[in-house]
């Protein structure tokens, strides 16, 4: 059944690795944790001896600080540019600490407190009145009652009053259900409960967090990958896995991926590898977007022509990611291709610029 899930959660994708880590974990564990801090670190950063793959490319000290934060009574806030794997990191940390990463709240303008805390089965509510049988637990209530990590994605996209419903659970470790009576009216957090939230630095001004809520989180910034070779290896590995899962029988071409990663880095930083200034696009040119483009290039080449994607495919797929509906970004992309037309693959990109829309 899991073979047909488009993207299984981390605890399913890496179930064998988690089992090996648990079997070999002899260190002390914080109360309510499925793994010790060192075992959780190995799950995220890899361990060749145990056959555990590295899943997050970034500063190891970030992982250490994040795990220590989760072992305290403070929440963990991961901030950074879009596409820097904040959500992936929160998923991996939740799977390592709790054994499950699916207690997730997706923040947005329409997110309500019911979707965060609890709601009611209205048929039972009308028939029986307020009761635990009629209560429908949302991720926060479940996480507190079961002692699990709750993930809150894009928290700053939620209205301020919705964000602040986390204040009492994070400080007093209790959630009130005023509709119920007696001991059932209070849900006390069990050992292991905590919250991991994420926020994009580009969107933090949408609904700025209150000072009271900020005090209940430790903030960690996730930076883009600084090294070209590291980013290239990551894009190649992720694109290869996605193409295999999509039924593509050929891996992505290394030379095409080199051009792709170079273009993304230069358009993201506004400077070529030689130090020449170039236009910086307003679109998000992240590693995650580069993986998506590499996936699309491979699909286009394989299913349309039965071969790996080419530089011409890259131009076609790049437009939808880099320019989207922004005509100014499209013009910048054209100028960039004209500026960067030296070398076989770059020349092919330049010659295929007519495939850009407009």
UniProtKB/TrEMBL annotation:
Name by which UniProt lists this protein: AAA+ ATPase domain-containing protein
Domain (AAA+ ATPase) ranges: 72-227
InterPro entries reported in the protein's UniProt record: AAA+_ATPase (IPR003593), ATPase_dyneun-rel_AAA (IPR011704), CbbQ/NirQ/NorQ/GpvN (IPR050764), P-loop_NTPase (IPR027417)
Species for this entry: Acrocarpospora phusangensis
Pfam family, one: AAA_5
The organism's place on the tree of life at top rank: Bacteria
Bilayer-spanning residue ranges: none
One GO MF term attached to the UniProt entry: ATP binding
SUPFAM superfamilies: P-loop containing nucleoside triphosphate hydrolases (SSF52540)
């Amino acid at each position: 059944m899991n073979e047909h899930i488009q993207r299984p959660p981390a605890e399913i994708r890496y179930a064998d690795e988690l089992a090996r880590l648990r079997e070999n974990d002899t260190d002390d564990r914080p109360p309510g944790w499925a793994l010790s801090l060192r075992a959780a670190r190995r799950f995220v950063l890899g361990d060749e001896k145990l056959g555990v793959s590295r899943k997050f490319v970034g500063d190891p000290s970030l992982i250490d600080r994040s795990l220590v934060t989760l072992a305290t009574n403070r929440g963990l806030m991961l901030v950074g540019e879009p596409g820097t794997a904040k959500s992936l990191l929160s998923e991996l940390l939740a799977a390592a600490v709790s054994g499950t990463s699916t207690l997730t709240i997706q923040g947005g303008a329409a997110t309500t407190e019911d979707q965060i805390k609890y709601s009611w089965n209205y048929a039972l509510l009308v028939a029986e009145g307020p009761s635990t049988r009629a209560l429908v637990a949302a991720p926060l209530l479940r996480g507190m009652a079961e002692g699990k990590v709750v993930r809150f994605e894009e928290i700053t996209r939620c209205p301020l009053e919705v964000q602040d419903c986390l204040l009492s659970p994070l400080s007093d470790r209790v959630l009130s259900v005023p509709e119920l009576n007696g001991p059932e009216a209070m849900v006390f957090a069990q050992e292991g409960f905590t919250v991991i939230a994420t926020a994009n630095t580009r969107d933090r001004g949408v609904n700025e967090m209150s000072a009271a809520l900020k005090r209940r989180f430790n903030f960690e910034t996730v930076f883009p990958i600084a090294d070209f070779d590291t980013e290239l290896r990551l894009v190649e590995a992720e694109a290869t896995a996605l193409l295999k899962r999509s039924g593509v029988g050929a891996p992505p071409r290394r030379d095409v991926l080199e051009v792709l990663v170079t273009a993304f880095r230069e358009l993201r930083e506004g400077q070529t590898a030689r130090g020449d200034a170039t236009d910086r696009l307003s679109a998000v040119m992240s590693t995650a977007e580069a993986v998506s483009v590499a996936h699309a290039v491979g699909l286009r080449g394989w299913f349309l022509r039965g071969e790996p994607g080419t530089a011409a495919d890259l131009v076609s797929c790049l437009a939808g990611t880099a320019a989207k509906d922004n005509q100014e970004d499209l013009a910048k992309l054209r100028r960039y291709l004209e500026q960067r037309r030296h070398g076989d693959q770059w020349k092919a990109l330049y010659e295929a610029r007519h495939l850009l829309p407009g």
